[in-house]
């Protein structure tokens, strides 16, 4: 009998609610016969916050932790001050569940029109650190609202936190084209940048087959446009990873095709899978959002649990769907159903 | 008789040395009859540092300060540890001379091939704060080189520093398409982001004709690829400005066409004009670098000194040159001479 996995489902806000059900359906269908899923739904996000002020109650977080993995839709709502849900829900989960590898593949699928004139063969993965850097929330402000206000943001980086994600990147490179590009801004952020570079150089010695180089974040934004096929594994910190994965998403034809995994690679806590797009309030509730990224995040969840063949079913269905119908205007449900029908 | 202006010239490293003479020649020719220039050359950069260990000696900085403006080439050399020249020379000048507006226009010239399939009509200016944020150098490290190392980087933002650059952006927008886009990451960097947004909202009230909106830095990298013609004035902090101006440079066909001004808008100290490209060690010394960005930085210098007509001569010559010969492979000297011949 197939083993049953417990999946926490957090559809969240806006289009998150529309695309997440399709991720679940794809999960089910792909794993038919090899794994069963039991879902625990969590009503978290803007609606809940506006209703009862709760963002991520402790007991619910405890229940989330008891699952084998998490499917997340999107978090963010224009009615709520920027940062409240992001810091209180999404980032709190990434930090509390120690999801230190934020894994974000970028691939230009056949049938997708890139905004680039000559995109070439784009297929790289960004390994973004997920639990440190400027995302720690270690800033403050004095004399707020006065002409003498000073506001700070502090990036905290530890050898412990950097080394584990660097190792992950080199291991991943061994399964790919064996090249790691460290992205930072070490000519300005000399303390953090120097530490990242030293740790990369050290770990690289254990992987003689993997070549590695370094690019400043600003130069990286250029190459993502001028020569994106040069990349294999991009390794970077939390903020730079946020920035370049959105640019990469645009370059491969829109964040509608970009999934991500917030991975606790030590398996102490469940990992979380989500499309990299946001809640898109402008198109929410209109059955317009593309569920492909959410469906691909289900494939990443399957890979994480060890079901590579099941994940492959999703990838193949998505690739075939995009190749044939990628340029057709379809509803959320239509795309979801079309992909499911191919599985 | 035409007034004489004193210009400090810092060619710096790599291709900086090849393109800066063309900026001077363009300056001379454009201002013929309306202004004269007296140059003071400063031997600063990698060669000097390797020779005698000097980066920016105090007396030389004092002499630089006594000029009316500064022409800078590029700073950076692979033989020298990242950060030493950048922090000790380039950023030190920007900070000590309180060049709080880092002005970076992006324009897609006729005749230039953008890497985008449908670039549209790109013409915007990034107003990057130049004296605060993560560039302050307020970080540190403990237990360096051990498994317990912690490295920090601190972003310092003041209402004083933000307000003056916000005002500059709104004033600039009045002379353009009257739209300001604030770029930040206020859903994560809640202290600094909140202050930026509040100050923008306050200053905006004094400019009822200027509309303004907000974009996260990650979303901005998407729009720069998918819809760059939407922008007019982009207002942002030091690090985000660094990142998006390089991406913008790529989108308008390469940073070879992008100039910048590090402006002390209160005129207490001289402002500095430089191409946004780096020292490009890979092509340095080969008479290959495109001097157009350096020549355009001379035009920005002229505008700053109030010589709009002279600046226009440069712009027109550059535009005509690019339109006719932009896609031809030419040497540094050939491009420089071609542009000069048109003036
Ligand atoms: C919503 C936001 C906090 C988040 C981030 O910055 O990490 C998002 O942009 C992402 O990339 O997942
Ligand atoms: C060389 C470097 C310190 C500099 C910066 O980061 O500001 C450069 O990238 C720039 O954009 O002028």
TrEMBL record, chains A, B:
Annotated site, Important for catalysis, chain positions: 135, 185
Pfam families, per the entry: Iso_dh
Protein's UniProt keywords contain Magnesium: yes
EC number: 1.1.1.85
Cofactor binding note from Swiss-Prot or TrEMBL: Binds 1 Mg(2+) or Mn(2+) ion per subunit.
One GO process term, biological-process aspect: L-leucine biosynthetic process
Reaction catalysis annotation: (2R,3S)-3-isopropylmalate + NAD(+) = 4-methyl-2-oxopentanoate + CO2 + NADH
Subcellular location, record wording: Cytoplasm
Residue sites binding Mg(2+) per the record: 218, 242, 246
Binding site for NAD(+): 278-290
SUPFAM superfamilies: Isocitrate/Isopropylmalate dehydrogenase-like
Isopropylmalate dehydrogenase-like domain segment(s): 6-339
Cofactor: Mn(2+); Mg(2+)
Keyword Ribonucleoprotein applies: no
Any GO molecular function: 3-isopropylmalate dehydrogenase activity
Domain of life: Bacteria
Pathway assigned to this chain's UniProt record: Amino-acid biosynthesis; L-leucine biosynthesis; L-leucine from 3-methyl-2-oxobutanoate: step 3/4
Purpose of the protein: Catalyzes the oxidation of 3-carboxy-2-hydroxy-4-methylpentanoate (3-isopropylmalate) to 3-carboxy-4-methyl-2-oxopentanoate. The product decarboxylates to 4-methyl-2 oxopentanoate.
Subunit: Homodimer.
Family per similarity comment: Belongs to the isocitrate and isopropylmalate dehydrogenases family. LeuB type 2 subfamily.
Entry protein name: 3-isopropylmalate dehydrogenase
Source organism per UniProt: Bifidobacterium olomucense
Gene of this entry: leuB
